[in-house]
Amino acid sequence: MAASGDEIETLIATMARLPGLGPRSARRVVLHLIRRRTGQMAQLASLMASVAENARECLVCGNVTGSDICPICTDPARATGEICVVTEVADLWALERGRAFRGRYHVLGGSLSALDEIGPDDLRIPQLLERLSDERITEVILALSATVEGQTTAHYIAEALAPSGVAVTGLAQGVPIGGELDYLDDGTITAALRARRKL
Ligand SMILES: [Zn+2]
């Protein structure tokens, strides 16, 4: 079946809504792909269909992966007793890119917000508490946003963890994080991790 002009326009309009793309880039990308429709475009289409079918959240940490438990959670070398708590999966991927942290992660999936009626049970906070004894955790590093919601979340978790005796630390102050970790260069992320402080 031949693609109609409408279909191509719809593809451009859909691509234009992707993060980092606008109408101009979307047109360029679509034209680039159409010129390689039997190669790169076919490969991309089949990869997208496969990822759409198989991508899921890791049952332990919330990372997005192709299996029920992600490679970080299954790697015994990463059972260091440290868990780094992040707001979003993008933060986890940014930290992994920097290779500064060799423990495991926990993705909250958002921040506490009275305004948006997001409470502890809407985030993956109960699951975090369960992991403490299951994985013999000794330190929880809160790599959360410097926003009011991020700090409210950090304080809530620090208090919830207090009875456990686990060390709770935060990244160096002044680092804009929480969904924005992805925009930091790897050196800054590494420095922020090294300069973590007790909460
Ligand atoms: Zn995982």
From TrEMBL:
Residues 81-176 form the Toprim domain. GO terms for biological process: DNA recombination; DNA repair. It comes from the Bacteria. InterPro entries: DNA_Rcmb_RecR (IPR000093), Rcmb_RecR (IPR023627), Rcmb_RecR_Znf (IPR015967), TOPRIM_dom (IPR006171), TOPRIM_RecR (IPR034137). Pfam families: RecR_C, RecR_HhH, RecR_ZnF, Toprim_4. A zinc finger (C4-type) spans 58-73. The keyword NAD does not apply. Keywords: DNA damage, DNA recombination, DNA repair, Metal-binding, Zinc, Zinc-finger. GO terms for molecular function: DNA binding; zinc ion binding. CDD domains: TOPRIM_recR. May play a role in DNA repair. It seems to be involved in an RecBC-independent recombinational process of DNA repair. It may act with RecF and RecO. PANTHER family: RECOMBINATION PROTEIN RECR. HAMAP family: RecR. Belongs to the RecR family. NCBIfam families: recR (TIGR00615). This is Recombination protein RecR.
